[in-house]
Amino acid sequence: SSNAIDHCLLTLFIVLVFTVPCLLIDGGLLESPEANAAFLVASIMVTCGILYALLLAATISEKCARVPALINAISFGEGTEGERQATVDYVTSSAAGFYVFGMRLTTGMVAKLIYVWCMVAVGTLTKLASAGGHGGVSFGMGV
User: Fold this and answer.
1) What is the reported pTM?
2) Residue range 4-30: average pLDDT?
């Protein structure tokens, strides 16, 4: 059922939200980042996998948005323009796509999510790197 998919995507999103900061903090607090590289690589792969799954889900909405133009381009013969236009209007008003909790998931939304978490990552890395020079945490970046 779509309700189960909604909850699965919500769970993946929550994992993504907490994985990125934890990954950065763990990377900054580890005594020897080289010793725990396997953990860091695995966390990065999980994060990238979740983002890829969200992008694939959002691609469904983008493909559905192109269906009315495809239907409009097909010729069904003489005198069918009215029925074709009615079909295009029906498909357009149905707003087919990938919905999560009643909200249509688009690639723009996923791109904004990626952008926000990149900003969080840069901010966290900057904070960790600047704390390393003042007797705080050394991030192993030579700063």
Assistant:
1) 0.69
2) 79
